[in-house]
Amino acid sequence: MTSEPQASTAEDRLKGLHERLGGIAYGGDYNPEQWPRDVWLEDARLMQEAGVNLVTLAVFSWSRLETSDGVYDFGWLDDVMDLMHRHGIGVDLATPDAVPPAWLTQQHPDIHPVLADGTTFGFGSRQHFDVSHPVYRRKALALAERMGEHYAKHPALRMWHVGNEYGPLSYGPWADKAFRGWLQQKYSSLEDLNQAWSTDVWGQVYSDWSQVGVPAQPRTWSNPSRRLDFHRFTSASMLDHYTAVRDILRRHTPDLPIVTNFMRFYKTNDYWAWAAEEDAAALDIYPDPREADSHVAAALNFDLMRSLRNGQPWMVMEQATGAVSQWPINVSKLPGKMRLGSYQAIAQGSDGILFFQWRQARGGTERYHSAMVGHAGPITRIFREVCELGTELKSLAGLTGTRSSAKVAIVFDWDCWWALELGNSPRSDLNYAQEVLRLYRPLFDANVTVDFVDTKRDLSQYSLVLMPAAYLLTDESARRFEDYVSDGGRLVVSYLSGIVDESNTIRLGGYPGALRNVLGAWSEEMHPLAGDGEEVKLTLSDGGTASAGYWTEHLHTDGADVLASYASGRLAGAPAVTRNAFGRGSAVYLSARVDATFLSALLDAECKAAGVHPELDGPRGVQVRRRAGKGKRFLFMLNHNDAPASVNVGGGGTDLLTGHPVQGAVELPPSGVLVLEENSVEDTRLEDRRTADAATNDTTR
User: Fold this and answer.
1) Rg (CA), the chain
2) CATH for 10-170+237-399?
3) What is the largest CA-CA distance in the chain?
4) How big is the CA angle at 134 (ends 129 and 139), to the nearest 5 degrees?
C-alpha cells in the first residue's frame, strides 16, 4: 500500500466540501446515461426543486467512458457536468471500476473472478473482476488518470467516489499468485507459515512455496487459519487497489475529499483499515421496513461509521426513499420513515444524506428499487417528502463538522468476525454481528451514546468497554484490556472471547485463555444448548431469577464473585455470570447468553457504576443524541414509535426545523423529529431568571 500524498487534511477537505455545498450534502446517484438527453434538463430543474446540492455520477459508466480499448469519450459526461454546474449542483464523480466493460472481459476473460468451487463469475452483473488481475488494475488506473486529468478543474466537481461496494472474492490463478506473494511477505519462512497454520493437522505440511495457494473448495472442511489469512489478504488487496486510484486522483485534486462506499454489516473488508485511508466513512444502508426494530441495527452501523475515523462526521452514500429490490418481499417505507431514518443518521454523525438513486430505472436488475423521482414522476408522495427534507436540511448547515462524545465503547473487530465464523466451532450458526447487536441494544434503548473500537485501540478515554464475542485477541491486545481494567476501567466480556491467537490457534489453559487473568474465571468446556428455544434457569446473587439460552459454559471462578449461577440443566450449581475486581477496575464475564431483561439490568448497573448517564431520559422508543462543536450543542429527539411520545427537553433551545424556541415538555408525533440548538448554560440561567421574574410579576399584579 502506498502512502497518501498530503496537501491538506481530511478535515480540511470535508470542511471545504460542506462550505461549497452550503451545508449538509443532499442528493444521490444520478445515471443520465440511462435516459435520453431531453430528460436531463428536467432532472436538473427537479433537483433544484428538491434542494439537491450533490449528485454521484459515472458509478457504472466505464463502457460509456472507454468505449473500446484506449478510446475515451467524455463528451456526454462533460455535458452533464456542465448542466449540473449551471444549476448549482455539485458532483461526486465516481471511477467506474466496479463494472469492467464487456469488450475488456472479452479480450481478457480471466479478469472474471473464480468462485471457491472453481466456477467462473461471468459478465452480466457487477463486481465481475479479480482485483489481482494485472490488466484490470492497469486499465482501471489508466481510466482514473484520464478522469483526474480531464475533470480536475471542472467547477462542478466537489469530491471523488472510487469504485462501488468493493467486495468480490476470487479464487482464480491471479488471486492465487497474489495470495502467495502476500504470504511470503507476512511470514519470514515456510516453516513459520506451517507453524501458524497448524499444518501437521491432517498432514497439510508445505515443503515449497509453490504448493501454497488460495483455499479453494475442499471435500469437507478446510484449514481455518489458512482461510483467515485469505480474508485478510482479500481485504488488503482490494484496499491496495483503492489507494492506488485514490493517489492518482489526489495528485490532480489535492483539496477534494475521496471516499468509497461501505455496506451494512459487510464481512469481506476490514473497515478499520479502509477508513484510515479515506477522507470519510460513507455507508450504503437499507433497513428492512418489515422489521419493526430495524432502526436499532441501523443505529449500530451509524455509530460504527462515526467511530471508524475517531468520531469524524461521515456520510450516508446510499439509502432508499421507499422499497428496495433485493429481498423476497420488498415493502416500501411508510410515510415519514425516510425522513426519520435520515435524521437518525445525522443525529449519529452523518453530514451527508444521499440516495440510490435520483431517477428510478426503467430496466435492468434494480428497476423496482425506489428513487427520489419514481416511475410515476414527480407527482408522488415520495417526491414531496424528498423536497420537504431538502428544504429542512438547509436549516442544519451549522451542524456540519460537529461531533458526538461517548464514554462507552463496544469492540467490533473484523479479525474476530472472520475467525469466529470460519466454521469448525461448537456452533456453525454463530453470527458475530448479532452478538454485537445483542450488547448494543440495551445501551441504545437507554440512550447511552456508544463508540466502537477494534482490539488495537487505546481505551483510556472510556469508562466502560463491552467485548461481544471478541474471539481473536493478540497477546498485545489482551495486555491492553488488562491494563485498561487495572487502571480503573470497567469491562464486560461475553462468551467466545479471547479464544484464539492471531493465527486462529486455540489458547490453552481454559477458556477464555487471553482474558482468564483479568476475568478471574475460566471455563473447562463449552456447552451450546441443543435445540431452538432451549433455556436454562439462572439464580441471581440478590435472590432474583433469570434465564439463558443458546450458549452456556462450564465455568469456574478464580477470585471472581458470582453474580448468577445455573439453576437447571447439566451445569446446575456452576457459575454463569461473574465479576472480578482487578487493580482499580472490574471485569464481568457472561458465560451464557442471558435473557434481555437481565442483560439490560446488568449493563444499566455497569453504566451507573462507571458514571455513565443517558443523553436525556425519555420514553422507550425515543432516541436522543447530541452533537457539539463550534461552541454549540445540538440535541436530537427521534420518535421511532408509531404513537405520540412526550419528552422533556429541560432548558431547551431553538428548534432548527421551525425556528421556534422550545422548552420543557414536548410531544413528538409518530416518526417525529426534534432538532434543537441548545441554549448555553448562561442562556438557560437567563431564561430561568426571566421565568422567575415573570412569575413574581404575575403574583404582584
Assistant:
1) 27
2) 3.20.20.80
3) 99
4) 75
Task: Give the pLDDT of residue 699.
Answer: 36
Q: Could you check whether 408-609 and 622-700 share the same CATH topology? A: no
Length of the chain: 701
Q: Which of 332, 315, 433 has the alpha carbon at shortest distance from 385? A: 332
Superfamily for domain range 408-609: Class I glutamine amidotransferase (GATase) domain (3.40.50.880)
Residue with cell 429481498: 327
List the alpha helices (DSSP H) in 363-431.
Answer: 381-393, 414-420
Neighbours of 499 (CB within 10 A): 26
CA distance 534 to 552: 11
Q: Encode pLDDT of 641-683 as tens digits.
A: 999 999 999 999 999 999 999 999 999 999 999 999 999 755 4
* Interatomic CA distance for residues 592 and 590, integer angstroms: 5
This model's pTM is above 0.70: yes
More confident residue, 547 or 699: 547
How many Cα atoms sit within 13 Å of 680 on the Cβ side? 7
Whole-angstrom distance, CA of residue 562 vs CA of residue 566:
11
Q: Spell out the domain ranges in the chain.
A: 10-170+237-399, 408-609, 622-700
User: Domain 622-700: what homologous superfamily?
Assistant: Golgi alpha-mannosidase II (2.60.40.1180)
Task: Collapse the DSSP code of 326 into the 3-class scheme (helix H, G, I; strand E, B; otherwise coil) and give the result.
Answer: coil
> Which of 178, 195, 188, 184 is closest to 503 using CA atoms?
195
Q: Looking at residues 518-547, what average pLDDT do you find?
A: 94
State pLDDT tens for residues 191-217. 999 999 999 999 999 999 999 999 987
Gap between the Cα atoms of 676 and 669, Å rounded? 16
**Residue 254 to residue 249: CA distance in whole angstroms:** 8
Catalytic positions: 165, 318
Q: Could you report how far apart the first and last alpha carbons of the chain are, in Å?
A: 77
pLDDT digits (tens, 9 = 90+) for 153-164: 999 999 999 999
SS3 26: strand
Read off the C-alpha cell for 294: 430495524
